[in-house]
Structures are given as C-alpha cells and as structure tokens.
Amino acid sequence: MIGLGTVGGGVAKLLRDEADLYAQRTGRRIELRRVLVRNAAKARASGLVEPDKVTDDPGAVVAGDDIDMVIEVAGGIDPVRAFVARALENGKHVVTANKSLLAAHGPALFATARQHNVSIAFEASCGGGIPCVTALTCGLMANRMDGLYGILNGTCNYILTEMTAGGKTYEQALKEAQDAGFAEADPTLDVSGADAAQKLAILASLAFGVKIEGDDVHAVGVDGLDLKDIAFGDELGFDVKLLAIAERWPGEKWVNVGVQPCFIKKDELLAQVKGPFNALSVHGHAVGHTLYYGQGAGQMPTASAVVSDLLGVVSGWAPAAFSNLNLTPDLTEPAPLLDRADTESAYYLRMETLDEPGVMAKVTSILGGKGISLSTVLQHESKAGEVVSLVVTTHMTRLGDVEEAAKEIAALGPIQGEPVIIRVIEMPA
Ligand code: NDP
Ligand code: HSE
Q1: Are the CB atoms for 215 and 222 separated by under 8 Å?
Q2: Which ligand has the nearest atom to the CA of 49?
C-alpha cells in the first residue's frame, strides 16, 4: 500500500479486523506486505501495521517480487503517478482512491495497465463509500445515460449544511471538515469545486462513453458564496448545493459538464443530502431515475470502497471487466463539449442597487430585450436612496443571454458591482 493516512489507516484496519471474512469470501488470504509513506520515522497508530512493514523506499512496494497488487491511497499527482506506472509495468494490479491522478492522467495509466495485462480499480475515487463507479460500469450498463446530478464533495456539503442549518461560519465549518479527515490535504481543491470536477470527469467519462478530463469541467466552488444568496434562496423555497452535473444535449456537441453552487427545490431528494454525505442521481434511458447515496468521504466509508475493489481484483471479476469491456477513457474518443453559453436553465440573479425610481423598469427591459422571461421578483422594504438587493428568477433561458444581460445591468448607474448569477435546477422527472 502507498499511504497510511486517513484512508490508508482505514484500509489497514479492515484488512486486520476482517481477514477471516475476506478469506471466506474469496478463498484467498490477503496479506498487507509493505506500506510506503513519506516519512517512515513518523509515529503511527499502534497495532495497525507492524513497524517493520512501513518503508520510505518506493521500490520495495512498486517493484517487490512478493507483491501482487498495489493500493494507492497517498493522493496528489507527482510522484504518485510514477509509482503507479511502475507498479503496472511490474505486473501489479492497482487499486486507487486518487481522483486527481485519474482525472489528469487516467487514459495513459489505463493504457499502461492494458499493455501489462493488469487492471486499475478506482471505486473510492468518486463518492467515497458509495459504489457509483460499479453502478455505472456494471449495474446500469444496458442504458444510454442522459444525465448525472451529483453531490460529490463531502467537505463542501458539510460546509453548506453547517452554514445553513448549523449557524456556523464558513471558516468554522471548513476547520471541522479538516479535523474530521474529509478535506483534501490542500482544502482549496474541495472549496474551489476542483475535487468535484475531477470526480465528475471520471463518472461522466464512464457514463457517456467519451473521454472527459478534469480541465474540461467548468468549476465554481463554494468559496465565493455569499450568505445573502443562501438566505434569499431559502425565502424562495430553495436549498443551495454544490452540484456536479453532466448532461446530454441534442445536437453534435452534446456533452455539458460543470460544477457550481445551484439552487434546488427543498423537497427534491438531493436537497435532503446533508453533512459529509454524497449522492449521485443517474438518469438512464431504460431505467429512468436512480439515486445512490451514502458517506462520500471519511476513513471507513472510503476504506470500504478500496477494500471492495481489492476483493474484486482478488476474485478476478474486476480485471475481467477491465480487460473485456470498452469502458475506460483510454478506449474512447474526446467528448464533444457543448459551449456553456448555449446551455439552458432557470437562473437566479441578485443585483445590488440604489433604491431609485425606474431601476426595476431598466432591469426588466434589459432582460426582456434578451428574451428572458421572469418567474419571480423579490425586493425587501427599504428607504429611498439606500442600497437594496433586487432578486429575480427566470424561466428556462440560454446562459449566454443571462450573462450578457448581467453585463448590461452592471453598467446601469444605480447598480453596484456585478449581478450574482446562480443556476436553478429543475431535475428531470
Ligand atoms: P492523508 O493526507 O491522510 O494521507 C496520505 C498518506 O500518503 C500519508 O501516510 C503520507 O505519508 C502518504 N504519502 C503522501 N505523499 C507520499 C509520497 N510522495 N510518497 C509516499 N507516501 C506519501 O490522505 P487521505 O488518506 O485523506 O487521502 C488519500 C487519498 O484518498 C487521496 O487521493 C484522497 O483524495 C483520497 N480520498 C480521501 C478521502 C477522505 O475522506 N480522506 C475520501 C475519498 C478519497 P506520511 O504519513 O509519511 O505523511
Ligand atoms: N475531500 C473529499 C471530499 C474526499 O470532501 O469529498 C472524498 O473524495
């Protein structure tokens, strides 16, 4: 195993405590032979791994003759990419929880695995303990997928839950997520939306059968969210969620992938997903709507996915699926990505304006001029001359038109700063 931190500690614990169960299930006894860490001298939780198995020599793990499989739970891209490539070249199956690595270099690593007749299993890279990779690549294989709507980052969902229901500040909630071990070593990956974008790239590649890289996913995080918008959303009957969305659109350019804070009606199932829990809503043309829910981060849920992959390799079904099915993005074409401006949705716009005569007329005239139809308008009582928030929500409209209208609105004299735009999700039936 490479890594003995939050997830590695959970994997070691399962392999120690459930050795008999796994031997009974697979007919094979699994032995954790060696663990590569950055600093072998660091004190470790006692009883998890014998100290003489902990090493800082990569070759002892990725090239060891007595090792059949390498579990990578270290994280990051370099030097881990080279460790994984060496393990594959040395004929070792790899199980990884590393979405950064797969979103950036998945196709090359999958191709290396194929060349050397071994496999890569990566359930834990998306959705922690939820078997959503297996659902897409196995249970739903009969379907043409129409859309994925996911809460894929536990840290962001925890922060949003604690800020809305728990009355905590952004900083308090982020610190708690770090202390609980959900957050990445660099938490800006979580709060910027990058972590969810990496997971969406992996899941959407599998679901749509095209190659999508992390950089193809437009990502906006929770770090720029204003409490004011959360409060207005609440008043309008919405919860805010960081949603990772992959949609199929009609036409030649049909893939839209993005991560952003969205408003969602409070009675939708995804709105009920709280704290570090994740959920993935998958729409397939034959099955209709399915929903996968569970702990998307944390030590034991993630270790559950890693060890289940390991047992899948031991039993032979994971390598067979890897080598016999054309699922992974080393075998598929680059995605025909739709220009975001051409996607359509309902939107929420908040403008800060001096409370002067005629502002509303000018704003609605700009929106009407772009063919944007309004669904609701909201302004609280204010005193003449004060700055007040003016909130509107739209019916389905082209994003490019909303962004152009927002620029024209920002140029009006009484308007202060740029309007805030938040997507309002209407979930497919
Ligand atoms: P931690 O930071 O807790 O642990 C990382 C471990 O990897 C440490 O033991 C560290 O060694 C070791 N390590 C890091 N870099 C190197 C290196 N260059 N060479 C050798 N060892 C190295 O991370 P997590 O356990 O939280 O995450 C691990 C992976 O799992 C990441 O890819 C993450 O994205 C993914 N993941 C994490 C989840 C979570 O809830 N935490 C959920 C789902 C996926 P040392 O101890 O010496 O510092
Ligand atoms: N940092 C990630 C999260 C861990 O918060 O969801 C799980 O991938």
Answers
A1: no
A2: 1
Mutation pick for ligand 1 pocket among 186, 302, 304, 307 (CB with most ligand atoms within 8 Å): 302
**What is the percent of the chain where pLDDT is above 70?**
100
**Residues 279-291: tens digit of each pLDDT:** 999 999 999 999 9
- Report CA-CA distances (Å) from 304 to 218, 262, 371: 30, 30, 50
Calculate mean pLDDT across residues 143-152.
Answer: 97
Residues 75, 218, single domain; the answer is no
Q: Ligand 2 centroid to 25 CA: how many Å?
A: 29
Structure tokens at 83: 């460790």
Which ligand sits nearest to residue 192's alpha carbon?
A: 2
Beta bridge partners of 423: 262, 347
Residue 1 in any domain: the answer is no
3-state SS class at 292: strand
**Percent of the chain scored above 90 by pLDDT?**
91
Determine the atom of ligand 2 nearest the C-alpha atom of 190: 1
123 and 146 share a domain? no
Could you list the active site residues? 199
Domain span at residue 419 reads 343-425
Instruction: State residue 403's pLDDT score.
Output: 98
Tokens 């849920």 found at: 301
Residue 192 lies in a domain: yes
H helices present in 282-411, as ranges: 299-315, 317-324, 359-369, 399-410
Query: Does residue 74 have its Cβ closer than 6 Å to ligand 1?
Result: yes
> Is the predicted pLDDT of residue 13 greater than 90, yes or no?
yes
Distance 297 CA to ligand 2 centre (A): 5
Our answer on whether the CB atom of 154 is closer than 6 Å to any ligand 2 atom is yes
* pLDDT score, position 385: 77
For the record, the structure tokens of 124 come out as 């834990």
pLDDT tens-place string over residues 264-275: 999 999 999 999
CATH number, position 413: 3.30.70.260
Q: Could you tell me the distance, in angstroms and rounded to a whole number, from the CA of residue 156 to the centre of ligand 1?
A: 19
Task: Tell me, yes or no, whether 223 and 267 share the same domain.
Answer: yes
CA–centroid distance, 63 to ligand 2, in Å, is 30
